[in-house]
Every structure is written in C-alpha cells, then in structure tokens.
Write a structure and sequence with these properties.
Blueprint lengths: L1 H16 L1 H4 L17 H7 L24 H13 L24 H5 L4 H20 L4 E5 L5 H9 L4 E5 L2 H21 L12 E4 L8 H12 L8 E9 L2 H11 L3 E9 L22 H4 L8 H6 L4 H10 L2 H4 L1 H15 L19 H8 L16 H8 L1 H13 L1 H18 L3 E6 L10 E6 L2
Helix pairs in contact: 1-4, 1-19, 6-7, 15-18
Length: 456
Amino acid sequence: MLDVKEKLKKSLELLRKYEWLLDNYVLDFFVDDHWSKLPLNWQQLLENIPLERLSELFPAEIQDDQLAWPSELIALKQNLEKLCINRMPITQPDTSLPCPLLEHPKLKDMFKKRVNPKKQHEIRRMAEICALSHRQTPVDFIVDFGAGLGHLARILGYGFGLKVCCFEMQSDLNQQARDIDAKLEFMAGKSLPASEMHHFQRPVHLCNRLESDTQPEQFLSSIRDALQLDSGNFRFGIVGLHPCGNLGPTLIRMFLGCPQAKFLNFVGCCYQKMTTEATHPRSQVHGYPLSSFLKEIPHNQLSYQAREISCHAMEVYQDRLLAGTYDHLRIHSLRAAAERIIVQQFPELRHCALRNVKHNPGMTFHEYFQKAVQRTRFEALDSKLLSSEQTETDLANWQRTVIFYTLRLMLAPLVESIILYDRCLFIMENGSEVRIEAIFDPRLSPRNHITKAVKP
C-alpha cells in the first residue's frame, strides 16, 4: 500500500506542475494563444523538428541523443514512465483459458453476431479472466453489469458453463439478448451432441439500473428475486466491461458492501463522466476521489479537461505520427480555426457543439467549416470570414496544434493512473486484495486496465 500511496502522491505533484497544459483544450488553441504558454525552448525545438519525432515523447520510444531535447521534457518523460501504470498487456500461461466453443465451425459466428473486432477482442479476454477468477475463487454465479446484448455473459454461460445474471437498464437490449441466446441454443442443438451441452447455463437478463446511491441491500434483493433465491446464503462475483463514469466506482462499493460478493473484475471508461466533489458538492457519493488517503491530500481534484484527455487513444495517435499521416492530424487545427471565427462573431458562444466531420485527404477549410456548421446557427456566417488573413495564419500554423495536442496526450496516462491508484487504495483500505493491470491491446481498446479484487 505504501508504494501505491507514494506513486499517487508523486503523480499528483507532477500533474499540478503541468495543469496549465492539461486543462487547455486544443479547441481553444488560437482563441487563447496556447502556443505562447509553452516554454520558449520547447517552442524553438518542437517547431523545427519533423512531426514524427514527437512520437519519441511517448513511453517506450527511444529518444535520439543527437537531438537536444529540453531537459524539462526529458525529465517529464522519465517521471511519467516511473509513475504511470504500464499500458502494454503481458500474457502469462496461467492467465490464459481458451474457450473451445468459440472456435466451433457452426457456432463461432453466433458469438460474433453484432460484435465488432474491438469488442470481440475485449469479451474473449475478459471471459477468460472471469472464468479464471471463478476457478480460483468459486462462486455460485456472476453478475455482469451493463451487459448490453449479453456478449460476455454468453461466453461465460455457454462457453464456460458459468451462471450469469445480467444487469442492463435498456429493456430492448435485454430482449434482443434473450433472442440471441435462444438462437444459439437452437443452433447448438443441431450441431452438438447432448454430452457437449450439459454444461450450458442460459444467462438471466434483468432490466435494472444501478445508481451511485443504490444500497447493497437493494441490489441483493433484486438479485434474489431475479434468480429466485430463498436466502442470502450464496456467493457471487461482479464483472463489468467498460462501465461508464460513476458505474465503475459503484461496482467497487457493491463489491465491498455485499458480504456475498467474493471477487470483482472490471475495466472502466469515460472518466470525464464521473462526478467529483467539485462538480457535485451536494452529492453524498462521488466517482472521484474514493480513498481516504486521497481525500486528505489538498488539491486532489482532476479537471473535466484532464479526465477527458485521459480517455484518448494514445497508441493510435503515436502510430499516425510515426507513419507520417499528418494530413489526418490537421483536423484539430481546422476545428480550432473555426472556433476563433465563431468566438469573434459570437463571444458568448464558446465551445458550441458542431457536427463531427470525418477527415478526407485534401479537404479544404471551407469544406470542413460548411460541414461542421451544417444545421447550426453558424451556417449563415459570411464565407469571407473563412478567408481572412487571421484564418490563413491560423491554418498555416496547423503543426503547432499537433505539437500541443501531443504534449497533452503525453500526460493522459498520468491522469488515468491517478484515478486507478485511488480506486486501488480505496479497495485496500476496505480490507480486500487488489491488482490493476493491462489486459487488452491498447491499439484496439485504449481503456485496457482491469481492476481485479478479491476478499481474503
């Protein structure tokens, strides 16, 4: 615990030093002249190197000794590598548990139905880990929160023979999940002998919502009703694949508050959607901070901007830098140039939502702007504004926006690590064992850290 506390404390100190960078959106790059906020020696070096060299600022990339990187940037990178939780998964033989049913020639497509490659990667690995947790800490059933169409529960129930209760607030998703289950059973009946289906466990799909203030007794009551349990004499595990915002911390509270809960496996996401003491001072519980240790540290808050950047895809961006696909990265400068035009005309309308525009090679600013403001109040703006001298200057400095965004993204793992260290300490403070590690390929699934907890 001491090591985690020390890392958390030092991480917060480092974050406070660079709040000026984390808390400024690239959207406001030209409006607020973010470039002038960078130290002069950073500006002089970064503006005069090929953009692909920026990839050297990210972890695991070797910096060229022939390039005189500012000493502060070198120290920042070194500190980030020491403090941040590793983002690359390390697969060990004892953490692998293949599911043969997923490779059955006539059934494998049923497990891929309406599942994109990213999700397939995630549910396969998550199912393995949950099955291993059940083997190491036997339980009567598993509760899958935010189950959606039941993809994870389907592998656990039919592939590994585990009883699963799915919590999903959308009734239409629950019904679709039941339909997929029924079709899988029908296909299995035609393709497998009865001896290979005796372990099948059909998931129970429960239409329910777990709120931040839901009490453990309420949750346990809904479980007993759904599974028709006569008493509280049962054991279960809690799992969640990318529970959004406050749901991750809520799962931790349910795990700690329910004596029957024996293990917890979840991979969080959408940290910007968590409530904090600063954003919701009247709320009794918050998504951050959780641990008593962090709550006692002054200036422990994370801004919305910091939590939002922590969810960006660092490795994919790094690949684009290395590949030299700079044209694709210009989209940030186009949005920032559009923001300046809008703010000059409507100072009170900063940060108004515009339409998402997919970047196309060779797309002009005029083309971008017209698509972005379509069906908004800005659609009637004089097109001459798009060709002003100021706008032309902004667009010519598009590389500066790439540099600024890269520096912010460099700090993203630090913000996520602070959140994860806080969750880790909260669980430890309440007497349970916990481990946090990367389990997904970060290029496929940027939010790839699992929080694994067990009660002694």
